[in-house]
Amino acid sequence: MRTDNCLIASVAVEGTVYHFDKAFDYAVPSEYSDAVKPGCRVKVPFARGNNHRQGMVMSLHNGSGEGLKFISELLDNEPILPSCMLSLAEFMKRNYYCTLYEAVKAMLPAGINYNIVTVYEAVKGIDTEALSEEEQKIYTFLQKKKSPVKRQELMTAFGLSDFSPLEKMVQKNLLKKSDDAFRKIGDKSQKMLRLSPKSADFAGTLTEKQQSVFDLLVSIGEVSVKEICYYTGVTTAVVDAIVKKGIAEYFDCEVFRTPTTEKAEKLEFPKLSNEQDRAYRGIKSLYDEHKGAVALLYGVTGSGKTAVFTELIRNVVGEGKGVILMVPEIALTPQLVGKLKGLFGDDVAIFHSGLSLGERLDEYKRVKMGLAKIAVGTRSAVFAPFENLGLIVMDEEQEHTYKSENKPRFHARDVAKFRCAKENALLLLSSATPDIESYYFAGAGRYSLFSLSSRFGTAQLPDVITADMNVEIESGNTTGFSSLLLTEIEENLKNHEQTILLLNRRGYNTFAVCKSCKEPITCPNCSISLTYHKENSRLMCHYCGFSQPVSNECPACHEHSLRFSGSGTQRAEETLAELFPNARILRMDADTVMTKNAHEKHLSAFSRGEYDILIGTQMVAKGLDFPGVTLVGVMSADQILYSDDYRSFERAFSMLTQVVGRSGRGDKKGRAVVQTLTPENPVIELATKQDYEAFYKDEIELRKLLAYPPFSDLLLVGFLSEEKSKAVACANEFLECLKLKCTGEFTDLPIRVLGPSPALVSKVNNKYRYKIIIKSRNNKRFRELISGLLTDFGKNKEYQNVTVYADLKPLNF
Description:
Layout: E1 6-13, E2 23-27, E3 41-46, E4 51-63, E5 73-74, H1 83-96, H2 100-107, E6 114-122, H3 133-143, E7 149-150, H4 151-158, H5 164-171, E8 175-183, E9 189-195, H6 208-220, E10 222-224, H7 225-232, H8 236-244, E11 248-254, H9 274-288, E12 293-299, H10 305-318, E13 322-326, H11 333-344, E14 348-351, H12 357-368, E15 374-377, E16 389-395, H13 412-423, E17 426-431, H14 436-443, E18 448-452, E19 463-468, H15 469-474, H16 483-494, E20 498-502, E21 511-514, E22 531-533, E23 538-540, E24 547-549, E25 562-565, H17 569-579, E26 585-588, H18 598-607, E27 613-616, E28 629-634, H19 637-641, H20 648-660, E29 671-676, H21 682-688, H22 692-706, E30 713-721, H23 724-742, E31 752-764, E32 767-776, H24 780-795, E33 803-808
Parallel strand pairs: 12-17, 12-18, 13-15, 13-16, 14-15, 16-17, 19-29, 20-27, 20-28, 26-27, 28-29
Antiparallel strand pairs: 1-2, 1-4, 3-4, 3-5, 6-7, 6-8, 9-10, 9-11, 21-25, 22-23, 23-24, 30-32, 30-33, 31-32
Helix pairs in contact: 1-2, 1-13, 6-8, 9-10, 20-21
């Protein structure tokens, strides 16, 4: 092939590491020159061994292909990512310190990904007499196969502990080895039937049943085999017969695996109040500028923010543009999807981890093909592949679940801002308790602010009472329920009204301690206590998944004197059942929603009034709308309030405000009871009053004093190793290199450094974790500094067994 002037593809290759990652150039073979496009995947030889890997074509250009390797195979007939998403991948690499392909992979549904697998086939014409007995068996096995066989299948079939026997047969030219790309999930298709071009010339005779099939095809044109059998009453043998006669022909038609949801009733768009209409018109005016902007819709709980952005969605979809609507929890999608499908029908696609791989793939394709104009889901929905994006809405935008804790460690809000700026779309942030940074930017004029100050219609904010649990404990009450909350629950049961209770800890008991040696029962793999789960009678680690049967024997001193303490949702549910034996109680936590569609089934049942009390973790605290709920109880505000994080007050205020806001959203006025050991805490007082402005005023002054966001950006540099000493040494050397850089070529960067120090949970899954926290501004110079240090440490063989990573805007320290 000529390489003096050829088409060259810059490819993001899978499986590279950060310190040498880039878009690698490959020459495009002439047979692919017309078909290959940016956004298509290819199979390429990589590194010295030329092992095949998959990659994404990022761009194309012409030039000399001298010394370049050629693309081995084009895996996609058309681009699976639009060009704007390829630009997004480069943005993610710069900001989240990941490889290009890690960014690309995060955008794609898991079912669409290929695996590059080694396969073997028999070389034809081999005399098997000279082969060993094992070689004869392997060769004969492959000779009978119509297609190459995967390495792992061969090893399993012949009980091989490694693949060296296969490689020896390759060297002897007995087997041919190659690398093939396999999709995890295939496209789903349906067997269809249509009249063949020869049907008009058919002069033979048909039986009565064959004639009925022929008549159906004449009237309809094409129909599935299943429908033919249903409507005519024939068997598939009759259909086969007319195909053999040349009258009809089979073909495959792609069908989509649609997520199962409850059938949505046709709904009318709600009439906006004057206040809602003012907010809508202001936001729409901003959208109409088509300049790529950010707006914040701030409104008290129950003020009708959903109605405002639903009206905006109607306008955007009416213009033929795509809309992404994100929610922080899977639990919030069923109610929202039900409303949107009632308003927009099949224009709605769903994106979240609760779907099967096939459903995720097909919902992605529906958006890509323009068959759905609205993508609703959790964090991953931000990557919905709209060619013509008009609007992104982030509901409950302050929630931490919009931040990914795995590579690439992106925040959906930042990704959404980039997409909207790139595609001239509008980003609308919506919340009753906005992120402190978002509200600050709105006040500074970087975002446009729109407010809703009162609840919609006749609904009123609930009355909130604080229950002092110190008094309850002194009086001998050990149930975890204050007398005040129990009285209110009893009143609700008498009035046939519903109650929501928040307890943000799952399990039965949250820890176990030996009364003799005072040692807690901890996970052998993590520096965290085990939680007792009564339903399976096991002590479980919520970090690595380790579990062990419950025993009264202490593993440290072997005395039989364990004491179980702390209350989780399982114990609270049991206590409620004992106190109110006739109450219908529903528990929602990570243990009860493991099965597919469990969120939707549970919440739909509660909405229909099949349960009196819903008790759960944070998934019941926000965004849900149940008019029948007139009482909310916060079991332990202190669990939320006191944590080792500068955002603990913000998170506590947000969750308390949100959960209290679930009460009294219908015609009846609601109540809320907040249980705490520190009733004098001002955060609790402000949350019970739903006074966000007063909370913000105090919090922003503290942030400014301590140079925390929004007055700086935080970056965590993490160090993971199975050897504690290695993690510590690597962290210390990184700090010294950082000091050297900052006193040399980066003296212009204002930086504050905290650490090194152990992470909040210092060991997870047998890996020790240390960290350095850096306060600075996330600008080009700062990214250049951090990228250079990560690259240097990636090449340092002394720390090859230490994982060093950077996390912008970390969730946990």
